[in-house]
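Quick log. Single chain, no ligands specified.
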Amino acid sequence: MANASNMSLAELEAMLKDQKKRLEELKKKQAALQKDLDGVTQEIAVLEGKGKGSGRRGRPAGSTSTGKKTVRRRRAKNAKPLKGYVRDALAGSKKGLTLQEVLDSVKKAGYKSKSKNFKNVLYQCLYHTKEFVLDSKKGTYSVK
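-> predicted structure:
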């Protein structure tokens, strides 16, 4: 390769064109080789019984559980659904309640939840129930 500072503009452009052409050829070759490699990898997986067509489902043979015990929390029992508690809380307020006020009112009424983020559960209830409307200017919820 000649020194780039001694080359004319036309020679530099020709050299750049050659390098781009070589790059495209290498990328095509890489894609073809990758496709071949993927096929070989899949064939190996099938022969080992891990790939598609092995007929097995579930945990691979010989593997054991991770050793972690999952702790299942029992669902809290309430006299009525969350919607009912929210309806009662909002019915008692003429101007509406903010999300935090609804949360406090529902908990005070005796609703039990073991949710790690009960505020989000309450928000989802308010958002997805057409009976409750949000006054976006005041940030309060009320019953239709």
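The first helix runs from residue 9 to 48.
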